[in-house]
Amino acid sequence: MNGEMNHKAYKALGDPTRLRIVQFLSQMCCGRAVMNESGGVYPGPTASEVCCQITGAEKITSTISHHLHELEAAGLIAIERRGKQMICSLRSQAFEEVALNLQSIARGDGTNACAEASDCEPGGDCCTPTGEVEQACC
């Protein structure tokens, strides 16, 4: 997932309704099946089921539809149209990539903003041996 997709994913997950949708979808069993009126079997919940769980409405609302499409645009969910049904599922690989990115940030991987002790100016910030920034350590 590139930087732009990470930004979209974080923005999408920053909305409480979208986060609730993701949490609901994550609780669905992989083997769960949804049947439509004609007897077809689909894996995953329909958009209407997501809407019912989040808002209590029996049919999908434009608001929930918007949130689902934002999550899809961020690469976090897949929406598959089958006739009148919209089948929703999480893209687990996308969440694994977001998690790896957050872990990388937490570890401080990548560019190190800490200055070498010899580069510190009096009263400036620098790093401890563990990589933590201390203020006015020089």
Description:
- The protein is an alpha+beta fold and 138 residues long.
- It has two domains: 92 residues, Winged helix-like DNA-binding domain superfamily/Winged helix DNA-binding domain (Arc Repressor Mutant, subunit A, Orthogonal Bundle), CATH 1.10.10; 25 residues, no CATH class.
- Helices cover 43% and strands 16% of the residues.
- It is built from five helices and six strands.
- It has a two-stranded antiparallel ribbon. A two-stranded antiparallel sheet has the order 3-4. The protein has a two-stranded antiparallel ribbon with strand order 5-6.
- Helix 1 packs antiparallel against helix 4.
- The longest helix is centred in the C-terminal third of the chain and has 16 residues.
- The chain is elongated.
- The mean pLDDT is 75.
Layout of SSEs?
Layout (H helix, E strand, L loop, with lengths): L2 H11 L2 H11 L6 E3 L5 E3 L3 H9 L6 H12 L3 E6 L2 E6 L1 H16 L18 E2 L5 E2 L4
Antiparallel strand pairs: 1-2, 3-4, 5-6
Structural domain tally: 2
Q: Mean pLDDT across all residues, rounded?
A: 75
Structural class: alpha+beta
What Rg, in angstroms, do the CA atoms define? 22 Å
How large is the share of residues in beta strands? 15-25%
Uncertain residue segments: none
**Total count of helical runs of at least 4 residues:** 5
Q: Ends: how far apart?
A: 39 Å
CATH architecture of the largest domain: Orthogonal Bundle
Say how many strands there are. 6
Q: What is the highest CATH level, the class of the largest domain?
A: Mainly Alpha
CATH topology of the largest domain: Arc Repressor Mutant, subunit A
Q: Helicity, in percent?
A: 40-55%
* Spatial strand arrangement across the major sheet: 1-2
CA-based shape = elongated
Secondary-structure element order, as H and E?
HHEEHHEEHEE
| Largest sheet: number of strands, sense, barrel closure | 2 strands, antiparallel
CATH superfamily descriptor of the largest domain: Winged helix-like DNA-binding domain superfamily/Winged helix DNA-binding domain
